[in-house]
Amino acid sequence: MRDKIIEVILGSGSDFVSGEELSKKLGISRTAIWKHINILREEGYNIESVNKKGYRLIGSPKDLLNPQNIYHNLKTEFIGKNIIHLESVDSTNDYLKKIGNDVQDGTVVISEEQTKGKGRLGRNWQSKSKEGIWMSIILKPEIIPYKAPFITLIAGAAIVKALNNLQVPANIKWPNDIIINNKKVSGILTELSAEIERINYVVVGIGMNVKSLDFDKELEEKATSLYKENYHLSRVEIVSQVLYEFENLYNDYIKNDYKEEILKICKEYSAILNKDVYIIKDDEKELVKCIDISDNGNLIVMDDKDNIQEILSGEVSIRGVKGY
Ligand code: BTX
User: Fold this and answer.
1) Ligand 1 center to residue 208 CA distance, Å?
2) pTM for the full model?
3) What was the pLDDT predicted at 214?
4) Which atom in ligand 1 lies closest to the alpha carbon of residue 92?
5) What is the ipTM score, two decimals?
6) Among 17-21, 68-72, 221-225, 273-277, which is the least confidently predicted range?
7) List of residues 6+ apart from 17 with CB closer than 8 A
8) Residues enclosing ligand 1, CB less than 6 A?
9) Scanning 82, 117, 175, 280, which has the fewest C-beta atoms within 10 Å of its C-beta?
10) How many Cα atoms occupy the beta-carbon half-sphere of 283 within 13 Å?
């Protein structure tokens, strides 16, 4: 939609385009136009607006996720030292997996758009152009493969920590969703390439809705974005903070086998601990109470007969009793 707004404004050269005209041409309300114009301004477009005349484009953008902008802000040692920035790709995870053996540890791929963004269990991840952060990190840790799923928890802890540092009250819905106001703002997809005893690489995919104001119908109820929740943050700032927090927690785990801080964050910012949720596996749905997260990162729950179960990430979905 914002591309279309720019197209119409650019097309009128130095003439103003009224809000009414834009609204008619694009089939959305004047309030929606005004919101999109504000986002374009935060992206660096200099758009003049004059009462009773409308809008006119004066200057072009600076808030892009290009590597130079990110390197400038980044305080990490190895993660994000090599960034590949794409305009469009099927999936940043798939892209990185194709070049996985040839790129350095900590390489990050960021795309403005994904045409086949993936969630877990073959699900789809909506990734519209410039609306969010769609990125993947490749890691080459010398650990045994069964320790890799914990990296999803590290990513979740890093994202909530970064967002809370930026004054966004985000929580983790174990194992891989980040939510605000009970709606999903971010998701993590970890994929592994390994042999029996050793890991070739792990790809951690992070999707975060930043500017999206409109979601496809089936997502409207359960998805949100930072802008929709009135947190107007720059994508460059978020990427830098998430990578920084991720590297610290990841080094704790890989170099020092230290998990306490990660588990502490996962518990403190959990959206489901001490709550009743449905555990969904295949076609079965069971109501349980979430009690704890184990040292291995598994979810400990109690069923209606007071039996304690340990749930492994990767095999189930979780639904809140009230809504998402
Ligand atoms: P998930 O399986 O937990 O969530 C997928 C579900 O979330 C979908 O079935 C849909 O209901 C909902 N959904 C789809 N798109 C969005 C969205 N934009 N916002 C909120 N909810 C949505 C979560 O999987 C893991 C997502 C990882 C995405 C990143 S993006 C970079 C990397 N590349 C890639 O292909 N995937 C990862």
Assistant:
1) 9
2) 0.86
3) 85
4) 33
5) 0.99
6) 68-72
7) 8, 9, 54, 55, 56
8) 91-93, 114, 117-121, 123-127, 134-136, 176-177, 184, 187-189, 205-207, 209, 219, 223
9) 280
10) 0
